[in-house]
Specification:
By secondary structure, this protein is of the alpha/beta class. A hairpin with a 2-residue loop joins strand 9 and strand 10. The mean pLDDT is about 90. Helix content is about 40%, strand content about 15%.
Length: about 425
């Protein structure tokens, strides 16, 4: 602990130590704009969860560097640390000898602890008088007990690979033509190589994505100790990437992979717990014409999807451009999803489909994805069926060129480009005009 926290014995090294963990190129995270306001609150566990190498630790280190005060760093990957973190009372007793009262504690990669949720509960219940900052790339260990163990004791922040808005945060504001060209180039990179920080900043993102997949397979998954068939697990991950945007059929996957349906379901659960993929449920708004049942599957990051399918060609050169853009749109919406909102797809018995439905407290918002540049506003028959059935507060058509807004039968309809997707979908609905 003294080696990991040199400021304890040499206080004058604190500032250099805090900044040493920050990368040379730092991209501000929009997902943390409000979360950091909570992190000073004592007697709470502040969880930052998300996939491996998405910048969770960097986000906390950047906040600590701005705060410029002592913090005790605890690396939960180390075996002696895991032994130390078995008893909350003994841990707190040792803490009194290591750091001044009230010093925040930063538990990095807490999923390596055997009973992470119970350990955090034990710390918080003893009201230690300091904030507990926590990162984890797997929600599996915490998830089973979070509701009973950490309810009222923890804040939770999801962090994912860079969104396009974050990746374009330093794009020039003027002249407009320069900004548009920058965003267009960055979108092309984002939709192909994704937003994992190392991949985004690398000259050779293909190699970074290869290393990342191997880390997921060899570390995150094996850490959960439930992979009896590693090669089948690897093939399932590739199969899921190729099936992104399609309905899940575990029975079919079982036959293709030569493993039981229950094993397929267990492996998919593991990939969900480490934030690699998501099973997207259908939207059921109470209409008889709706089909309910199987979810669709999507990968959270397009770079991983394209690596696993072995195709890094430009969007314009691909026969699967529609599937690539749909998976990208899912990732952007998933990252931006506010508390209280859920994401779905919609399909009716008459085969009308809408790619995404964001269910918000104000009603369902439909999203259709078109992988081409539209020259005029138009709606597909399926989209009109959704509008007729639900009269949503908003309907959004993602395309590569057209920006347009109009009202159809009382529904705000927006045609928008990738740069504005999240804001177009999740912006507050317009106020009705006064007469």
């Amino acid at each position: 602990m003294l080696k990991d926290n040199p400021w304890i014995s040499a206080p004058d090294t604190l500032d250099a130590w805090l900044h040493r963990r920050l990368p040379d190129a730092f991209v501000p995270r929009l997902q943390l704009a409000s979360a950091a306001e909570r992190w000073s609150q004592a007697d709470q566990a502040h969880l930052v969860v998300g996939p491996r190498q998405c910048g969770k630790s960097t986000a906390i280190w950047s906040w600590l560097a701005r705060r410029a005060k002592p913090v005790l760093y605890v690396d939960c990957e180390l075996s002696p640390v895991r032994e130390w973190c078995r008893s909350p009372p003994l841990f707190l007793a040792d803490l009194e000898r290591l750091a001044p009262a009230g010093t925040p504690v930063f538990f990095d990669e807490i999923q390596h602890l055997d009973e992470a949720a119970l350990f955090l509960k034990g710390l918080v219940d003893r009201r230690p008088g300091m904030p507990l900052l926590v990162t984890g790339s797997s929600s599996f260990q915490l998830r089973s007990r979070t509701r009973e163990s950490l309810a009222g004791r923890a804040s939770r922040t999801r962090l994912f690979p860079f969104s396009l808005a974050e990746a374009c945060g330093d794009a020039p504001l003027a002249p407009p033509a320069a900004r548009a060209a920058t965003i267009r180039d960055r979108f092309e990179r984002h939709v192909i190589f994704g937003g994992y920080p190392r991949a985004w900043l690398a000259d050779r993102p293909e190699q970074v994505l290869l290393d990342l997949v191997e880390a997921i397979l060899s570390r995150d998954a094996s850490d959960l100790g439930r992979i009896a068939r590693p090669e089948a697990f690897r093939r399932l991950l590739r199969l899921a990437a190729g099936q992104a945007g399609n309905l899940v059929n575990f029975a079919e996957w079982s036959g293709l992979l030569g493993i039981s349906r229950d094993t397929v379901a267990a492996y998919v659960e593991i990939l969900e717990s480490v934030h690699i993929l998501v099973q997207l449920p259908p939207f059921a708004g109470g209409k008889r014409s709706e089909l309910t049942g199987r979810p669709k599957i999507f990968l959270v990051d397009n770079g991983l999807r394209n690596h696993l399918t072995g195709d890094f060609r430009r969007l314009a050169d691909r026969v699967d451009a529609g599937a690539v853009l749909e998976n990208w749109a899912f990732g952007e919406l998933w990252k931006a999803l506010p508390a209280g909102a859920t994401l779905h797809y919609w399909r009716s018995s008459s085969k009308a489909e809408v790619d995404f439905v964001v269910l918000t407290p104000g009603g369902p918002i439909g999203v259709e994805v078109k992988a081409h540049a539209m020259d005029r506003p138009r709606l597909e028959r399926s989209s009109r069926s959704f509008l007729d059935a639900y009269r949503p507060p908003r309907f959004v058509v993602l395309n590569l060129e057209l920006e347009h807004r109009e009202t159809l039968d009382g529904v705000e309809v927006r045609w928008t480009t990738p740069e504005h997707l999240a804001s177009a979908v999740l912006a507050p609905p317009p106020r009705p005009s006064r007469r």
